[in-house]
Design goal:
heterodimer, A: mainly alpha, 12 helices, B: mainly alpha, about 75% helix, globular
Chain lengths: ~300, ~350
């Protein structure tokens, strides 16, 4: 194995990990405030789609990114409103988002481009690289440290975490719990939106009806694995991203003579199960994550 | 007490529940009209053909009912786990793996009368094991069932797709598996339609599950754990065991759905490329369960409603040009709306203002 091959694996790992990192970091922020959103997969898919519609339509990748992040934020606003203000069921609302995306995106791909299954945006819509790498990859690293700093080293972060740990005391100390939760849900979902558009306009430059392929749920597993800490989330995301790259290498290696490609596809999912089952036991979710907080 | 208030007391909750579901469905259809219009199609045409394809004739009614057969079961599978406080979204993978089980049975040479029982046996056994894997991870390792069941869904998808393409493919038509032998098929209920006899089994199972959930100790324990885990623990219920029971029942129900779709629905009687004759049966079951308010009796009309959307979708696509996936989006919107508790109460307070 020469150095260029190692560099290649490193870059590919960075790319494969970026959507996982963005989505899981957003979800950590959201769950720390008490809002669980299992709709990450759906948000990634919808944002990936809208990113291509706008980015490809205007031949402007930045517009595509903004549209995707805005859509993510909008879905977060809806989910946050339902869960924080209307005291709705977090899981059911998230399931609804996923079901909607599952149907809407193939509909949209056909309605917009008249094709079934997938559409590849033009090269002008692809996010240009900065210093030879994706600007979204660079941002994702900055974002994870920002979120970590925000959560654990600012007053705002302390208030936000108290909403997920003990909303009653937070309320008593003058924190507006619902508003804080809504904000966390919006920021969290917009990061999933960025994750989605990273796949469709940057890394893979395509939109298909199953583009996230379970990454939204793997991000949820990473949140668990990371014990709701963004820096451990960084580690987890890169671990899972690395699995994904290894499979791509195995698919083109001599191994494919022995194990068919279809079966190699199961590795990331088996690895996710194995790792979550192996490390759990020591992690502890925020006490009120997913529990609608009702004022007395 | 007059009759009206007595009716209100006895059925008030069900009536409000029914109104909420109706409202949610109306919002779902309304929002989809906007999306259909935005896509450049005619919502009026879409809804006309959606209706014509689902209830417009006796034939379309049979098609609607045929689609409700597996949805009743996958809906019930989700409902049972929700009643136990679990969000088991693994019906999808259990349907795939049980369909493979039916094909495995069909591949074995045996006396023809053995095919039907063996298909059910192997298919359901695989699905129950698949479901219990998530249950075991939950109970012993604390792995969130939402994450584990989704991973198991993907694993099942690739295993079944592998088996379809590499082991059980039909040499004459490699895009699908071998077909279920004639002796191993469920008979049609109405000739020349897709309504097969599985509907009798499905409705029977719904009734049995209703009795189990509301009239037996097992059902009582499942519901108690779902209502309050800690109280149940203090009350002496073995909560881990109850969780495993709920996973096993879910797997059994989804497995039944997967087997029956493979051995009952004409014309393929096989698993096809991309498992397209099986995908979304599990996910649509979630919508069925939530529309039916996680109640076995509510699940029957709910599965007919979603079955109607599925049946009408094809006609909507052919005659109005609207891609059939739109109906899946409608289901998503309905589920999101149903996440809001006390919908009618909220609406009332806004109207009064």
């Amino acid at each position: 194995m020469d150095s260029s091959m190692i560099a290649n694996i490193l870059i590919q790992t960075a790319y494969a990990s970026t959507p996982l990192l963005l989505a899981s970091t957003g979800e950590i922020l959201s769950e720390r405030a008490g809002i669980v959103n299992i709709g990450l997969e759906g948000i990634m898919l919808l944002s990936a789609f809208i990113g291509v519609v706008v980015g490809d339509g205007l031949k402007n990748p930045l517009a595509g990114i903004l549209a995707a992040v805005a859509l993510g934020a909008l879905i977060g606003l809806m989910h946050g409103f339902i869960t924080a203000y209307l005291k709705g069921d977090h899981i059911v609302s998230g399931l609804g988002i996923n079901l909607f995306a599952l149907g809407f995106v193939p509909y949209g791909i056909y309605a917009v481009w008249g094709v079934r299954g997938y559409y590849n945006p033009s090269t002008q819509a692809k996010v240009p690289s900065v210093f030879g790498v994706s600007p979204i990859f660079i941002s994702s690293i900055i974002i994870v440290f920002l979120v970590y700093y925000l959560l654990f080293h600012t007053r705002f972060g302390l208030s936000l975490r108290s909403c997920g740990e003990d909303p009653r005391s937070a309320d008593a100390s003058g924190i507006r719990v619902e508003r804080m939760q809504l904000l966390a849900a919006v920021i969290g979902s917009s990061l999933s939106g960025l994750a989605g558009v990273f796949m469709s306009l940057d890394w893979l430059t395509t939109i298909t009806k199953d583009l996230p392929a379970g990454r939204g749920f793997i991000a949820l597993a990473i949140v668990n694995f990371a014990n709701w800490n963004p820096l451990l989330g960084l580690l987890g995301s890169y671990l899972f991203g690395f699995f994904w790259v290894i499979i791509e290498w195995l698919k083109i290696s001599a191994l494919k003579q022995i194990i068919p490609v279809t079966l190699l596809n199961i590795i990331p999912y088996v690895a996710t199960l194995a790792v979550t089952a192996g490390v759990l036991g020591r992690s502890r979710p925020p006490k009120y994550a997913g529990v609608p907080y009702k004022k007395e | 007490m007059n009759t009206l208030s007595r009716i209100k007391e006895k059925y008030g909750e069900s009536i409000v529940g029914f109104l909420e579901v109706t409202l949610a469905a109306a919002i779902g259809l309304g929002a989809s009209a906007v999306l259909i219009r935005a896509g450049g199609y005619s919502p009026a045409d879409a809804f006309y053909y959606l209706f014509r394809g689902s209830f417009g004739s006796l034939y379309s009614l049979y098609t609607t009912l045929s689609y409700s057969i597996p949805l009743m079961l996958t809906g019930l599978a989700f409902a049972v786990s929700v009643r136990a406080g679990l969000f088991n979204i693994g019906a999808e993978g259990q349907v795939y793996i049980s369909a493979l089980g039916a094909i495995i049975a069909a591949s074995i040479a045996m006396p023809s009368y053995l095919y039907l029982p063996m298909e059910f046996l192997i298919g359901i056994l695989l699905a129950v094991l698949w479901s219990l894997a998530a249950g075991a991870l939950k109970v012993w390792k604390g792995v969130n069932e939402v994450v584990s069941t989704i991973m198991l869904n993907w694993i099942a998808f690739w295993i079944v797709e592998y088996a379809r393409a590499n082991i059980y493919y039909d040499p004459l038509s490699p895009d699908r598996t071998i077909r279920i032998p004639l002796a191993g098929r469920l008979p049609l209920l109405v000739a020349n339609t897709s309504l097969y006899s599985g509907i009798i089994i499905s409705i029977g199972v719904v009734v049995v599950m209703y009795i189990i959930m509301w009239k037996t100790a097992v059902g009582y324990e499942i519901r108690a754990v779902g209502l309050n885990l800690f109280a149940s623990k203090y009350g002496g219920i073995k909560t881990s065991l109850v969780a495993l029971e709920a996973f096993a029942i879910s797997g059994l129900l989804s497995g039944l759905a997967g087997v029956m779709e493979t051995i009952g629905r004409p014309p393929t009687y096989a698993i096809v490329t991309g498992l397209t004759n099986l995908v979304n049966l599990g996910f649509n079951g979630i919508a069925v369960s939530l529309i039916g308010r996680n109640n076995p009796i509510g699940i029957i009309p709910a599965s007919i409603f979603i079955g109607a959307l599925t049946a009408g979708a094809t006609s909507m696509q052919i005659f109005a040009g609207v891609p059939l996936e739109m109906v899946q989006a409608v289901q998503g919107i309905i589920v999101i709306v149903l996440a809001i508790p006390g919908l009618i109460r909220i609406l009332k307070s806004y109207i009064k203002r």
